[in-house]
Amino acid sequence: MATTTDTGLSSGESGHNADDWASTLNDEGLNKIIADLNARRDADLFENEVYQRFFNRFGFKVSSVEDIPVQEVRRVEGGPRKKSKSRPGLSDRHLKLTWEQKCQIAQVECDEYRHEMAKEEEETSGIISNLRARMEDIDIRSDDLGKNKAEFKKSVIKDAFIEGREAYASEKFLRYTDEYLRQKDTVIDKLRLSNTALRAQLRKCRDQLRQKEEMGEVLHAVDFEQLKIDNAQCLARIDERNRRIQELKLMAGRTLQTLNNHKNVLNQLHREKKRVTNEINQRMDISNRAVNEMATVRGEIYEEKYNNEKFKAYMESYRVPSVMDFVHVREEYNDITRRESTYRRKLKIAEMALTRHRKLWAQVQRCTVPKDT
């Protein structure tokens, strides 16, 4: 039970003196007293909770404070028993636990907490081990499914596709199914042999334990501690192997990434090769056309040279007409020019007359249309 706390006010003071004492305090002093009382209340509640758990654990049925078997605390801890000095007739508020009894109860609760924590830790460790095993199983199954999917795409979907019929060859699917079932049967046989070996090893360990028990070789705490050390070492090696596996997986991932990068570079080089090949073919085509054009040009040059020599021979044999012929041609040219200017003036006059007649005709039509209507 919780001890009675001292609130700083004596039991003999009257209500008037308490009011005077409270009125002399400021807000900071009252807040400090309230915080102190709240802290003491929380400590008392925690202490009562510890005592209640202790009594509930050992099945103590009490109806009042006088019925609490205080010596049971010493019996649980194995300490010496002492007679209770409580006198019958005292009120419940005068019966208190000693500091030694409180420490013993606290020690029992601490041991119980440690036991519960160890039990929870053991259960949690088992759950974590099971979850880790299930995760590893899921990872293995996921990798297996990915490999099977890739193999199925490669063996059945890609290779068994018939272009003309837009269908898949059933023989390759049946062959892939038989091969897959054969592989699974092999894995099942390996697991069965491994299971048989583990059962034999377990049976051997049980026989050894039974022989040790029959011979009186009982395992001691040192043996369990040695097993714990060996288990810790095995777990450390397993963790090291798991870390190594993770490093290898990361290395494989980086290698795969590098391989993909090199594949991309290779694809780019292939595309560059195709582009260069096409460009070379275009250049060869242009070169062939240029050769053909050069042959054509050579023929044209030869022909032009022949025509030029022919023209030179004609120029050498050409005779210029006389001056009188030039004068007569010039007079004819001037006469034709004068007649052209005359005809142009007549044409302009005719166009002006035509424009005027068209305007008159339009006016006549506008004047005659209302009379017809």
UniProtKB/TrEMBL annotation:
Domain CCDC113/CCDC96 coiled-coil as annotated: residue spans: 182-355
Residue span of region Disordered: 1-20
Principal localisation: other
PANTHER family linked to this entry: COILED-COIL DOMAIN-CONTAINING PROTEIN 113, COILED-COIL DOMAIN-CONTAINING PROTEIN 113-RELATED
Subcellular location: Cell projection, Cilium
UniProt keyword terms in alphabetical order: Cell projection, Cilium biogenesis/degradation, Coiled coil
Protein name (database record): Cilia- and flagella-associated protein 263
GO biological processes: cilium assembly
GO cellular component term, pick one: axoneme
Organism: Calicophoron daubneyi
Record-stated family: Belongs to the CFAP263 family.
Biased composition (Polar residues): 1-14
Highest taxon in the source lineage: Eukaryota
